[in-house]
Amino acid sequence: MKRVLIVDDSISVGRQLGKIIAGAGEEFEVIGHAKNGAEAIQVHQVERPDIVCMDMNMPVMDGLTALRTLVAIDRDVKVVMVTSLGGVGEKYTEALKLGAKNVISKPFEPDNVLRILREL
């Protein structure tokens, strides 16, 4: 079972993503939620999740800054960035250059989310 950390400042978006992941049965387990990049780094250091699903736009520390830090701490970290459809483009390319494994767009398509996570 792959352990997943969800990072999003929106409680409703985090819950929605958590339901999709939990709906995959025994494949994935949501081990926690963080509401910004700084919390994500703290939780990652304690829990060591297999996958981090992280929003790009958050207060305190955005997803790209947190991604840079996580990759510096753990070169093998598997981060999937989460963004609204309008937020792709340059940030998508930058996220992949920084080490993100993929990008999931909101609104979520459950089959697409699970396919991306299974590929990691």
Task: Write up what this structure looks like.
- This protein has a five-stranded parallel sheet with strand order 2-1-3-4-5, sandwiched between helices.
- α3 (63-73) packs parallel to α4 (90-98).
- It has a single domain (2-118), classed as Response regulator (Rossmann fold, 3-Layer(aba) Sandwich).
- By secondary structure, the chain is of the alpha/beta class.
- Helices cover 43% and strands 24% of the residues.
- It has helices spanning 11-22, 37-47, 63-73, 90-98, 110-118; strands at residues 2-7, 28-34, 51-55, 79-84, 102-106.
What share of the residues lie within helices?
A: 40-55%
Large-scale geometry: globular
The main sheet comes to: 5 strands, parallel
Distance between the termini: 12 Å
Query: Which CATH class applies here?
Result: Alpha Beta
Name the helix and strand elements from N-terminus to C-terminus, one letter apiece.
EHEHEHEHEH
Number of domains: 1
Record the strand order, biggest sheet: 2-1-3-4-5
